Amino acid sequence: MAAALRWHAFAGVAPGELCLQSTLANGQCFGWKRVTSLGGHDGPAWVGVVGRDVVGLRQLPSGETHVADLASSDAQRPAALLATLADYFQLSTPLAPLYKTWSSAHAPLKAVAARHPGMRVLRQDPLECLFSFICSSNNNIARITMMLDKLRITFGELLHVEERTSGPSIAFHRFPTIKELAGIDEAQLRAMSFGYRAKFIVQTAAKLDALGGEAYLYSLRGKDHQAVQEALLQFTGVGRKVADCVALFSLDQTCAVPVDTHVWQIAKRDFAAASSLDSSTKTLTPKVYQRIHEAFSSTFGPHAGWAHCLLFAAELPSFSGEDARTKKGGKKKRTTGESESGCTKAHKPTAKRAGGVKVEAGTTERATKAGKGKNVASKLDTKGTRASVKNEGAGASQPATPRAAAGTKRKRKVNGTNREVSKTSSNRGAGQATQRKPQETKGRRVSKRSAQASAVATPSEDSKSKPKPKRLRQATKATT
Q1: What is the pLDDT of residue 364?
Q2: Nearest to 257 by CA among 312, 217, 216
Q3: What are phi and psi of 384, to 5 degrees?
Q4: Of 47, 40, 103, which is closest to residue 71 (Cα–Cα)?
Q5: Which residues are known to be catalytic?
Q6: How far apart are CA 383 and CA 76, in angstroms?
Q7: Would you state the pLDDT for residue 427?
Q8: Higher pLDDT residue, 219 or 443?
Q9: What residues have CB less than 8 Å from 350, skipping those under 6 apart?
Q10: Per-residue pLDDT tens over the stretch 47-57
Q11: Among 391, 416, 407, which residue's Cα sits nearest to residue 471?
């Protein structure tokens, strides 16, 4: 039986300064897991690894945050663990003044800030952050999490196994070191379903190891944004977007604004004047990327990257609560969700999690709107051949679910005659109706009524000699 945990209050953290749900589920990290109960505490809690510390976090209805050390019962540990987490959550930066400044500068953000208080940017381990976002290339949160779990379990050190009274036990592994990552063979990763990212991981690990490993990444924390971005762009699988994610979430670059297609749309919608963006621009070029960065910086100041996270998260279905649909009519409805203790109007993640959208080689979308984008689904020809599936909204390829099997027959009247025609279908994505091409007859298409009218007006010799349909005979009698 699992022993009850000793929970310690995170002293000095006001309710509005930290919301676990908003901070840990907004797509900036992939190692935390939400559980329904933990260590004698019935209620939502979060578990994860920070460095070598196995941590449990919970928030009470009052907004007070509590911390538990899952792997150690040492009475001296709580103080050191609280200090580690204060650095991880960057609690030395007060959030309330930033929210106030951003809200006065930008009306759309003011509404978002009211719905999602306490959303902080984490100060993650640079090594784990770098390889996490390399794995995120054209991917979604669920699959990114699965990949990183495989890396930890296969190559990382086992730190702790948490036995629980309700639910299965949870094993916690440290993220692999650079030496462990550099020793991985590309074939191993491909066998673990990493796909083309396997090459990125192997080549980046080898290059980083040659540059000095973790120490090289930590040395970037003291440099300016441009120098940090240029240093990260030398690694395989890292474009400007991934570089800015790593810079913002692990290298103290609070001004970094990772720009993907969704941030680009936000910029065109809310920052058109500030960025001089033309709404007709269709390519995210380096020049456009820089304009968007400058627009955010001029509006929100040195913590523009933090403000960007609020606007980005507001677009996620799990935060907006607008991805649920009514059973009748397919109309959107706002879901109320379950409020996280201490956080107002924070929505629980839904089944349809965010995904990624291609932007450029080596870049990726961070946790984006699943099911919102254009879904090019598989098409079935009359022989039942399946075409390739490419989901442009959710990033990862997904199996198509056709409405009917290819090759099935159904009857349909064509020019007054019952004919069997092949029935094919294509899944056009959530909430989109299936469209079928109208059946065509040989030559010019003619409706039944127009054909009858033509026959009545100018009866041919052939039509006189052949028996007419009942309706046509009646129409002929009436005209004569």
Answers
A1: 35
A2: 312
A3: 85, 20
A4: 47
A5: 241
A6: 70
A7: 35
A8: 219
A9: 317, 318, 323, 324, 335
A10: 999 999 999 99
A11: 416
Q: Tell me the two tokens of residue 68.
A: 């538990």
How much is the average pLDDT of 274-288?
Answer: 75
- Could you tell me which residues come within 8 angstroms of residue 241 by beta carbon, excluding any fewer than 6 positions away? 258, 259, 260, 359, 360, 363, 364
Cα–Cα distance for residue pair 324/332, rounded to 1 Å: 6
More confident residue, 454 or 379: 454
DSSP string across 316-368: SHHHH----B-TTTT-B------PPTT-TTPPPP-SS--B----STT----SB
Q: Is 128 helix (H, G, I), strand (E, B) or coil?
A: helix
Which one, of 396, 399, 408, 403, lies nearest residue 427 by Cα?
403
CA proximity to 433, closest of 329, 311, 314: 329
Question: Per-residue pLDDT tens for 322-359?
Answer: 443 333 444 444 333 345 555 754 444 333 333 333 33
Residue range 141-168, pLDDT digits in tens? 889 999 999 999 999 999 999 887 777 8
Q: Which residue has the tokens 């009850």?
A: 4
- Give the pair of three-digit tokens for residue 336: 């109320």
The partner residues of 220 in beta bridges, in order of sequence, read none
Q: Which tokens belong to 66?
A: 């509590």
Which among 169, 135, 172 has a CA at the least distance from the CA of 29?
Answer: 135
Q: pLDDT digit string (tens) for 469-478? A: 555 555 555 5
CA 424 to chain centroid: 31
What is the C-alpha to C-alpha distance for residues 288 and 273, in angstroms, rounded to an integer?
Answer: 13
Task: Check residue 340 and give its pLDDT.
Answer: 56
Q: Which two three-digit tokens encode residue 450?
A: 């127009």
Euclidean distance between CA atoms 224 and 365, whole angstroms: 24
- The region that residue 118 occupies, defined by phi over 0 for left and psi between -120 and 50 for alpha, beta otherwise, is left
Helices (H), 251-342: 261-270, 272-275, 286-300, 304-314, 317-320
Single out the residue of 243, 251, 199, 204 nearest to residue 223, CA to CA: 251
Contact, 174 vs 244, CB < 8 A? no
Taking each helix axis as running N to C, give the angle between helix 126-135 and helix 141-155, from 0 to 180 degrees, rounded to the nearest 10.
Answer: 130
- The predicted model gives 41-64 an average pLDDT of 90
Q: What is the pTM of this model?
A: 0.69
What is the per-residue pLDDT for 314?
A: 84
What's 386's DSSP letter? B
